[in-house]
Amino acid sequence: MVEPPPAPAPGKVYYDGCPGCAMDRKKETRKGSVPYKELIFVGIISFASALPITSLFPFLYFMIRDLHVAQREEDIGFYAGFLGASYMVGRGLASVFWGVVADRIGRKPVMAFSVFSVIVFNTLFGLSVKYWMAIATRFLLGALNGFLAPVKAYSIEVCQPEQQALGISIVNTAWGMGVIIGPAIGGYLAQPVKQYPHLFHDNSVFGRFPYLLPCICISFFATLVFISCAWLPETLHKHKGLERAVEMVEGSTTQESTEPPKKSLLKNWPLMSAIITYSVFSLHDTAYVEIFSLWTVSSRKYGGLSFSSKDVGQVLTVAGVSLLVYQLLAYRQVNKILGPIHSTQVSSALSIPIIAAYPFMTHLSGIRLDMPLYIAAMLKSVFAITRVTGTSLLQNNAVPQEQRGAANGIATTTMSLAKAFAPAGAGIIFSWAQKRQHATFFPGDHMVFLVLNLTEVIGLVLTFKPFLAVPQQYK
């Protein structure tokens, strides 16, 4: 005998055939329990979409060299910066569009299409033999990969209010692991003929395209995720009279009753202040990943560590594992004790001494280098994901459901523009710093990490009043 669907809670009106109402019914039946199935989908989609974003960084230096676009070795960072920025330029130009589309037709189709774009354009990037082709494929990958706006809205909509921190942290942790494990995949699998000569030969396809293997592996994983999207439930309300979709009685304590009133997004200062703060931190994090990769593989005579791409991949893999452990064991308690604002402030402040310590590690070697480098990379990753999650929670709770896609689209656009500037600016500063190894004022890479710390300080200042306006439910 088939059980009848649960009766609506007092004061609610559900519409048959509406996926959003079906999700609200489902949430009513599992009050207090975590929506594991939906959050697993959120995690793997975020992870698959994030993998190609930074997977090129460990081999970017060598790829620019092999494309023969740089006249001198010191100029490689300059061209690397523009290639790294092309993805974010594409995403910045298209994110609001994808957010609006997600509010119109649903979260699921936009997320599925985004994963499909990874399959196509990430593979084409691995086949690039000209600088312009690499730039074009990365730009199109960014423009068509519009997952971030709908997936953040989705992670809020499948959760009860007390679980929203978990939902957003799953997105940001999976995304953070993707942008860290992506470089690990790039580091271990790029130039396979050189790294694994007993398995790959010069005459093979990987001899002609030395950076194809990591791209194919990421695209294969994205293919599996794309197929799994068929089982992804929709959360957007689809019926006439959206405002009456879930009618609440006075005094109700469910999620919909705490949503802020609908108003112009650009005039919503709690939203916009959180977006600006989020974008500054995103600029810093992207510049950090690129500078860390370029710094570790550059020669010691230029202030680097002379690492191989595999060495960089190993460091970033350990940092990615630390994110997973932190997410599973610690983040919910951190958010419960400190809340999204104070956790953001604390993690930002603790990041500053870590960044300041990096240039002094060039004087170390062996285990004396490995221990502080690995610990610093792990802590930096944990602090970064904490403040990104905190600002994301503030954004999504500053708007009602029907504006979340567009709001996250605006956030993704501003963040992407910041991230587009970050690798280009980081590449230019890194290239300039390598030419001033004997300067009196912050020589060489000391200047690079000083600039990184200045952006961190700016982000930290923006987390305080009067700039940051707090959504009503956090007051």
UniProtKB/TrEMBL annotation:
Query: Where is this protein chiefly located?
Result: membrane
What membrane topology does this protein have?
Multi-pass membrane protein
> One GO CC term of this entry?
membrane
Pfam families linked:
MFS_1
Q: Where in the cell is it found?
A: Membrane
Residue ranges occupied by any Major facilitator superfamily (MFS) profile domain in the UniProt entry: 38-471
Keyword Transmembrane helix appears in the UniProt entry: yes
Name of this protein? Major facilitator superfamily (MFS) profile domain-containing protein
Q: Which organism is it from?
A: Urochloa decumbens
